[in-house]
Write a structure and sequence with these properties.
This protein is an alpha/beta fold and 824 residues long. It folds into four domains: 97 residues, Alpha-Beta Plaits, CATH 3.30.70; 380 residues, Peptidase S8/S53 domain (Rossmann fold, 3-Layer(aba) Sandwich), CATH 3.40.50; 149 residues, 3-Layer(bba) Sandwich (Glucose Oxidase, domain 1), CATH 3.50.30; 97 residues, Sandwich (Immunoglobulin-like), CATH 2.60.40.2310. Helices cover 24% and strands 25% of the residues. Helix 8 runs parallel beside helix 9. Its main location: secreted. GO terms for molecular function: serine-type endopeptidase activity.
Amino acid sequence: MGGEGDIMVSLKFLALLLYVNVVACIAAKQAIYLVLMEGEPAAFHRSSPPREDARTFNQNSEVYKAHAKHLVDSHDQLLVGTLETGSYKRLYSFKHIVNGFAVHTTASQARKLKDAPGVKLMERDRGAKLMTTYTPQFLGIPGVWTQEGGDRNAGEGIVIGFVDTGINPFHPSFAYDPTNTFSSNISGFSGACETGPRFPANSCNGKIVSARYFAAGAKATATLNSSVDFLSPFDAVGHGSHVASTAAGNTGVPVIVNGFFYGRASGMAPRARIAVYKAVYPTVGTLTDVLSAIDQATQDGVDILTLSVGPDEPPEDTLTFLNMFDIFMLFARRAGVFVVQAAGNHGPDPSSVLSYSPWAIGVAASGTDRTYPSSLLLGNGQKVGGVGLSGPTFGDGLFLYKLVLAKDSIKINGTFPRTPQYIEECQYPEALDHNIVQGSVVICTFSAGFLNETSTLTAIINTARTLGFMGFLLVANPTYGDFVAEPIPFSVPGIMIPSVADAQVILQYYEHQTERDKRGFVTKFNASAAIGDGRVASFKRQSPTVSRFSSRGPDFIDINKSPADVLKPDILAPGHQIWAAWSPMSASNPILMGYDFALLSGTSMATPHIAGIAALIKQHNPLWTPSLIASAISTTATKYNINGELIMAEGYDVGSFYPSTPFDFGAGLVSPNRAVDPGLAFSSGKRYEDFISFMCSLPNVDPDRIRTATGESCNHSLSHPANLNLPSVTVSAVAGTQLVHRTVNNVGLRPETYLCSVLPPNGTTVNVYPPWFSIASQGTQDLDIQINVTKAMRHFTFGEIVMTGSLNHIVRIPLSVLPNSTSS
């Protein structure tokens, strides 16, 4: 009896010990923390802040090197004096545009650090995620190339930095052309070529001028897979190569996939140089690595910084403008870098943008007029449209083959689970009867596995190859409704039927032709079908349209999504079905494995279009600041499609559209030919202090939070946040009358007279003073914009100011106003 009691006591003790150990493990779980420190970083030390049009620091000077070393030493001293030995690892010291560091430690140690002397701000790493053959012609880019001496010169002398998944240096889009050597004129840039697996020293060939990788955050967060997570700038994913080639890939590169020629690819600025900063890996992406890459890219001296990566959700405990990612972009802008970022892929929900700040250009995504239609021919002569970049079934889609529904070809005595993945979705070849499906066109159904994102098209293709399908269909399921289908290269004939109505046409024909016994088993397959060629482009689509996935405004300043007086997104660019370079390893997309090119969609794809166009503008106007480039892109954009009608936006339902607003497309679709010569420009944030003044003018803002994050005091707030000199006007609350100020510069070579006209937002009248003006070349003109509420509205309404010049310049200013009440 006593022995039994001892056993019970021992079990209770072991249970208690186990509980204590579990709690201790949870408490000791480590994470990455980003820390900002008091004191100027090296780029801005002992001098006035650099102008936007120059990188005035000299990183090779003894003063710069000494201060940078002092910052690193101070970070180590703080950690040693604050945290327990062995409880942390410093991953990076940020010392160029920001004074701070990233540390891997426990939550309890991080709390000590947060209260340590000299620590201004601390944020837990939220992780980082990833957000052409035809688009140069669609945007009229060759016209800009002509102005720059043709495609063999377009973008010459400009360096575009890419913080992404790296680059595939063996791709022809990044090859060096000995017949068209680069000029050595990339003054102010000093990068480095880091080597490693699959990235030899000759990867930096003159086209690629610098390549670095950042992995301290990734290694601290996850166990990296050495077969794909290469510690080198090599791109095992493909995303970084796609983005870089869209902005600056060589011109005229043939796009060949599965032996089919799709056309020739070119970047927006094919002669721009490429600087690579790999910060996202197949296994993991951390904000820590991304921020270190931004700091280094700015130190290297890139002209343009392309961010198709970043946090995938808004910050929870701070102003959107004051999260670490936006702070780093602010200081990159302060150092003279044009920063462009993806708006996000959470559309069409309102206030879903992930680009918040006026110092970075947030890019929305649109489609072009190009589509790749595919079709299915049924035995009764009916044709059903679908999606799929595949060749036709044997006989060019004219010979008909037996049509089989996957669940009618299941092995009767199979031992596999009776789940949708096995019996409906064609995910497992062992579930299907080889004698039935071989040489047939097989109907696979979009079911629970696809809805839960555990089933893949790759598995269907594997099944089709293994069992010898003539072709396959992936059809919509009435239980789950229509699905969104994007054209993907299939190595076997295949077609997706994303519409339930179309799927029912196919299934009704199939059932009518199929003979069954009393148990429901098929005794004879009489239905037949053929898959047509889905690789031939059509150019009949209404375009552009704002893509469904593209994140929408209004911009917001906090977790409660209180609207901000800043227009987001800023601009619209092609981001739907974009051909560009790829990495054959394709570590995150097995269906694209082995391909040198990929057709992708996302605001990630739209962002490099703007980066490349900014390079062309910078080449044409070398002395222009980032704000002038941003203004030119905005004021020359169009809100009309190729038919002269208002750009439409895709809604929630597949195939639905609604008239778009600036919260869908910003200023409109980018117009590169006009942007190189905009006439007037708004110099927003000409001084770094302008952005500080903007933040200090935000409603209910705590000045201490501004000072903590930026090191600047709120000594000169704007009278209203909407008075930041942006090329748009957004006012989130107007009671009675609101006066907004703007200043324009004539960046043209001749004097010009402008006449102002207004399309007021509903519920308002808008007056511009002066209504007309003459302005000298390089002159300035102040404008007062008076907004009067005539009817209170419950939602934003939209209009525009158009300034028409005597030399045919047309300058558009989008108006987005929420009229709260008619009285102040």
